Amino acid sequence: MIMTTIGSAYWPVTPEGRILAFSLSVYAFSIFGYITAALASVLIGKDKEELSSKEIAEMRSEVQKLSSEINRLLGKE
Questions:
Q1: CB-side exposure of 10: number of CA atoms within 13 Å?
Q2: Can you spell out the DSSP letters for 1-67?
Q3: What's the pLDDT score for residue 7?
Q4: Where do transmembrane segments lie in this chain (predicted)?
Q5: In angstroms, rounded to a whole number, what is the distance separating the alpha carbons of residues 73 and 65?
Q6: In the predicted model, is pLDDT for residue 9 greater than 80?
Q7: pLDDT band at 47, cuts 50/70/90?
Q8: How far apart, in whole angstroms, are the C-alpha atoms of residue 27 and residue 42?
Q9: What confidence tier does 11 reach under pLDDT thresholds 50, 70, 90?
Q10: Cα dihedral sign for 3, 6, 8, 12?
Q11: What global pTM score does this model have?
């Protein structure tokens, strides 16, 4: 468990201790990953909300252009 203790001189010797230490380190890494992912999703979510209204306006404009192009090609204008 040197990677979780930053090179400590003390580590578990018994199999039970090693299993417990390994389990705790996996738990700690998963909690750290969860917190990091939650923070990243909050930060990315703020940017996404600002872009979504722009994207919707661009899509509507593109749909209108495509609709008028289809009507022109079909001779309905």
A1: 1
A2: -HHHHTS-S----SHHHHHHHHHHHHHHHHHHHHHHHHHHHHHHHHHHHHHHHHHHHHHHHHHHHHH
A3: 62
A4: 20-44
A5: 12
A6: no
A7: low
A8: 23
A9: confident
A10: negative
A11: 0.50
Tokens 């979504």 identify what position? 52
Question: Which tokens belong to 53?
Answer: 């209204």
**pLDDT of residue 74 exceeding 70:** yes
Nearest to 18 by CA among 37, 41, 2, 34: 2
**Rounded alpha-carbon distances, angstroms, from residue 64 to 53, 54, 67:** 17, 16, 5
Question: Which tokens is 49 given?
Answer: 């909300």
Classify the C-alpha dihedral 68-70-73-77 as positive or negative: negative
Rounded Cα gap, residues 65 and 77, in angstroms: 13
Q: Which residue in this structure is represented by tokens 């996996």?
A: 26
Locus of tokens 């979780």 = 4
- How many whole angstroms separate alpha carbon 50 and alpha carbon 33? 26
Q: Which amino acid is at 11?
A: W
